[in-house]
Amino acid sequence: MTELTLTVNDEQQTIDVDPSKPLVDVLRDDLGLTGTKKGCSTGVCGACTVRIDDEPRKACMHIAGMVDGKSIETIETLSDGDDLHPVQEAFLEEFSLQCGFCTPGFIMSAVALLEENPDPTDEEIETALHGNTCRCTGYDMIFEGVKRAANEMNNESAAQPADD
């Protein structure tokens, strides 16, 4: 066991953990953050996508010892009670999910994309989501959810008064 210090969803956490334990298991089992889903455990499906130092990463492919001192954001950090993040809201409005198992990973990838590129092309959306797999839906509804979120976020920022 090794003591690790992580910043998870803006809260510093110090935990004793096997440094070879997958990050997805640390988040779910040790920290109780079950929004991050454990799918394939091989980095293929993307259900476990989180942001590590602002970059979308697959939590099953990172061991605990690799993230000591890092900042990690999970799906739990996006909403504030019933107040959903625009990407979460857009996914609901566009019916971008069916069973929902893959949804947290898609949303974390989409949020990272839209923070970096607020007006992505269809090709840029496809590229950003290429590491996420959905077994239930066609991808069209997921892409429409990302486009709707981009549009809503852009309209929201345009409506904000400029700081003087």
UniProtKB/TrEMBL annotation:
Keyword Metal-binding: yes
A GO MF label: 2 iron, 2 sulfur cluster binding
InterPro entries assigned to the protein according to its UniProt record, in alphabetical order: 2Fe-2S-bd (IPR002888), 2Fe-2S-bd_dom_sf (IPR036884), 2Fe-2S_ferredoxin-like_sf (IPR036010), 2Fe-2S_ferredoxin-type (IPR001041), 2Fe2S_fd_BS (IPR006058), Beta-grasp_dom_sf (IPR012675), Diverse_Oxidoreductases (IPR051452)
Key word Cell membrane present: no
PROSITE patterns, sorted: 2FE2S_FER_1, 2FE2S_FER_2
Keywords for this protein: 2Fe-2S, Iron, Iron-sulfur, Metal-binding, Oxidoreductase
Pfam families cross-referenced by the UniProt entry: Fer2, Fer2_2
Residue ranges annotated for the 2Fe-2S ferredoxin-type domain, each copy included: 2-78
Record protein name field: (2Fe-2S)-binding protein
Organism name: Natrarchaeobius halalkaliphilus
Phylogenetic classification of the source organism: Archaea, Methanobacteriati, Methanobacteriota, Stenosarchaea group, Halobacteria
